[in-house]
Structure formats: structure tokens, C-alpha cells
Amino acid sequence: MSQAFDVVVIGAGPGGYIAAIRAAQLGFKVACIDEWKNAAGGPAPGGTCTNVGCIPSKALLQSSEHFEHANHHFADHGISTGKVTMDVAKMIGRKDTVVKQNNDGILYLFKKNKVTFFHGRGSFGKAVDGGYEVQVTGAKEETLSGKQVIIATGSNARALPGTPFDEETVLSNDGALRVGAVPKKLVLIGSGVIGLEMGSVWRRLGSDVTILEGLPTFLGAVDEQIAKEAKKAFDKQGLKIELGVKVGDIKTGKKGVSVAYTNAKGEAVTLDADKLIVSIGRVPNTIGLNAEAVGLQLDERGAIVVDADCKTNLPGVWAVGDVVRGPMLAHKAEEEGVAVAERIAGQHGHVNFNTIPWVIYTSPEIAWVGRTEQQLKADGVAYKAGTFPFLANGRARALGDTTGMVKFLADATTDEILGVHIVGPMASELIAEAVVAMEFKASAEDIARICHAHPSLSEATKEAALAVDKRTLNF
Ligand code: FAD
Ligand code: NAI
After folding, report:
1. 359, 58 in Cβ contact below 8 A?
2. Which of 279, 422, 429 to mutate to test the pocket of ligand 2 (most atoms within 8 A of CB)?
3. CA distance 162 to 247
4. Looking at ligand 2, which residue's alpha carbon is closest to its atom 38?
5. Which CATH number applies to 170-280: 3.50.50.60, 3.30.420.270, 1.10.3720.10, 3.90.25.10?
6. pLDDT tens for residues 360-412?
């Protein structure tokens, strides 16, 4: 006998758990299935984001930043500490506590919203009248039926061909977040978001870090001026980033790992290290979903094919988040989850792909929304640019962190904001103003005329908006 639901959600990452909650708020009877296990074998909803992604990486970034400040910046404030040490096990333990608080928070939210949670793997059974059967395989076997099914099964780390993750020496994001001691030498392959964030964590804690990047340009998706400024800061910190490399043989042994590669000059180089983190992107995950049984269409990358509304080729089956096209970001997954639940309810769920912010949580932080200067040029759009450096911002000086700038790009004729790019302190928070402005189709002048608190980093945003019209007040 199957248990009948209006909506069955497979996956409780940010896409799935948020879709489940929103569907329940809209009056549906909702089940959410997730297979992630904590160390004790119990449920750990929250997906990659909560367990081995956004949340634990930010916890380690915070701990390592405190360590870096205590070691290198407290003295500027007149604080002397003596020798500062790092208890890595305690740092990892704190991170695990933060993760558990988030897992428990989601279980609480399911209860509060009357979402029925099933711990196990969800896979498609047969199509039944007006919906689908979904089998749950876990501690308990269950058969559910759902009139509507939302797939939110996320993504997995991409491995280098011939070099599987062993999570001891060759690490994915999972192993990278639970290294037991500071590696003396660390190599990362891929200087994307994970490479830079994880490289920063271990460099701050004392590792000699080298990041090998295949492309000749640094952070190709980021506005060039911003990427250049960020690279300058990373170079100064001692984060070694080699661009335009071709990775060759990787050998692991008792003493660690050796990575052979050809550098941009064509020279053969071999690097020995204690650990290797491979951060070369992620692949959509449909493992165990039994998608073939129901004829669910996947593309050549293994992503579930969806239309602009997240509808799959099967009636009543939707897919959201990392398992479909678009940026692999938690907030994108959440927005799609909400929009799908609302569409199922007959409402007009909406996701604006033009205003999805990106943040890289390094120091300096990098954040942006909208198009880069290079994209505007390629699209043939006439634009005006305005920048303002944190060096001229009073709050940044007081914080002791004046790296970077805010950059505005606005339409040359209408002054509508087309992109905002920030490298510098708290860029992750500052970008929210730009997202709101762009969502409301504001002009640069709108931001320039709004009163911003003094002294605050947000004054740099106002000044960059003023710079579009060449009338900064403090620079
Ligand atoms: P996921 O979070 O991957 O969740 C999918 C869930 O489905 C998992 O719990 C999985 O166990 C479950 N599942 C899969 N198949 C089945 C099945 N058949 N049955 C039952 N359950 C199943 N994004 C940001 O926006 N900001 C960040 O700071 C950020 N930092 C990151 C740091 C790292 C190291 C990594 C790896 C990623 C980071 N991301 C970040 C990306 C973010 O984690 C993902 O975009 C987001 O988790 C995608 O959400 P999702 O719901 O689509 O999938
Ligand atoms: P990424 O796509 O950000 O970067 C991968 C990098 O590896 C690229 O620069 C690419 O050119 C390079 N690369 C690929 N193959 C290579 C090879 N064989 N040799 C050398 N270099 C190679 O992917 P990453 O860092 O693995 O992160 C995956 C995704 O997770 C991100 O795209 C992002 O969506 C998400 N994420 C988001 C974060 C955030 O929002 N702050 C933090 C971490 C991850």
C-alpha cells in the first residue's frame, strides 16, 4: 500500500527542502525524501550546501580568518597575543556543530510546516493514475505516490579522469572540509570558487598552497578589473596560483601525492604535496533515481532537461537546483524550489536569472550581479562605468581593510544599472543593495541620491554610483 501525497520532493538540499516547505505552506500534503547520513547514520537534511558546501566552508573560512587576524593584524590595533596556535580538531568540531545546528533546523522546519520527512533514497517506480510511485530505500522501505514530483538531487564533485577521490590524499570538497591537521604542502587543481575558498582556509592556517588552473585567465566569469584586483591581493597573501597549466600524471603514495603538469611556458614541473584538492567543477546527480524507468530526459552533461519553468519532459515532474541548467548556487536552487511550488499551486512563480548574485568568500570577498564590462562589450551595449576604491572609504580605513573597489556599470542612455561588481570587505553583504536596485530596474543615479549611513562600507556603493556620472564626493 503506498502513502499518497500531493507533492513528493526527492532531495532535501536548499532546492528540495525549500520547495517542500513552500508547497506545504500552500496547503499541499508534502513528503520530502533525503538520503544524506550524519556520522551516526541519522538523517542530515540540507544537502551539499549544509553538509559539505556553503555552511561548513564558511565556518572554516571564519575560523581561519580569526587565526589570520590574531597572527597578523591584531598588533596593528595594539593587541599583543603571544604565540597564536590553532587546534584544527576543535575548528573542525565547531564546523560540525554548525552543520548539525542547520540539519536540526531543517528537521524542525519540516515538523513546523507538516512536511513528512523520509530518510533514504528515493527512486521512481511506475507511473500511476495521475502521478508517480516513488520508492524509499533506507532503514525502512516505503512506497509513496505523488501527484507531483520535484527532483532536487543536486550535484557531486567532478573527479579528474584516472584519479578517483580517496578523501585521504585526493580530496573532493567533502574531504577538504575535514582535514585533520594542517597539510605542510597543499595542491589544488582548479582556481574556481572552491579552489580559492579552500586554498584560502589552509593557507591562512599555514599550508604552502599552490593552485593549478587550466585556463590562461584568472576567474574568467568575473569582471576583468575586479579579477585583476583580487589576484593582486591573493598574490600578496602568498596564495600561489599558476594559470594555463596542463595537469598530467598524479601519483599517490604513503608520503602524499605528486602532481606532474606542464606550466604556461611549456616546462614540465612536478609538485609533491601532502594533500591534493580537486575542484574542477561539479556534475549533476541523478544516481539511484531510476530516471530511465520513467523516461526522464537528461542532457549530455547528465543534467535533467527542464524548460524555463523547471518542468521536465514528464507531466507533473519538475526539477530544480544543481541537477538542472544554470548556476550551481544554493540561492538559485531555493528560488527555483519556491517558484515550482507556487506553479504547482497555479501561481506565477518567478526566478530572475539576471539578478542572481555570486559571492566568493575569500579575503577580499568578491561579489557581483548582472553583466561584466566584457559581456557588455561583447553584447554591443553602450555603457558608462564608475568605480570607487575602499581606500577612500572611512569605515574601510577604520576596519583596517581597504583592499578593492565597487564598480557600477550603467546603460549609457537610460542610466539603468546593468552590473555591479565588488572586491573588498563584506562584498557578500554589500551586493544585496545592488540586487535590489537591479530587480527594481533602478538607475545609477537612484543609488547615488539615496542616503547611506556614515561611516559604512555601503557609502562606497553610493560613491561608485556617483562615479558613473563622474561626480564622486570623496575621491
Ligand atoms: P544539494 O544541496 O546537492 O542537495 C541534494 C540532496 O539530495 C542531497 O542531500 C542528497 O543526499 C539528496 N539526494 C540525491 N539523490 C537522492 C535520492 N535519489 N534520494 C534521496 N535523496 C537524494 N552555493 C552558494 O550559493 N553559496 C556558497 O557559499 C556555496 N558554497 C559552496 C561550497 C562548496 C564546498 C560546495 C561544494 C558548494 C557550494 N555551493 C555554494 C553550492 C551549493 O552547495 C549548491 O548549489 C546547492 O547545495 C545546490 O542545492 P540542491 O538542493 O540543488 O542540491
Ligand atoms: P568552478 O567551476 O568554480 O571552478 C573550476 C575551475 O577548475 C575552473 O576555473 C576551471 O577552468 C578549472 N578546471 C577545470 N578542469 C581543469 C583541469 N583539468 N585542470 C585544471 N583546471 C581545471 O568549480 P568548483 O570550484 O569546483 O566549484 C563548483 C561549483 O560550486 C561552483 O561553480 C559554484 O557554483 C559552487 N560553489 C559556490 C560557492 C559560492 O557561491 N561561494 C563556493 C564553492 C562552490
Report:
1. no
2. 279
3. 12
4. 193
5. 3.50.50.60
6. 999 999 999 999 999 999 999 999 999 999 999 999 999 999 999 999 999 99
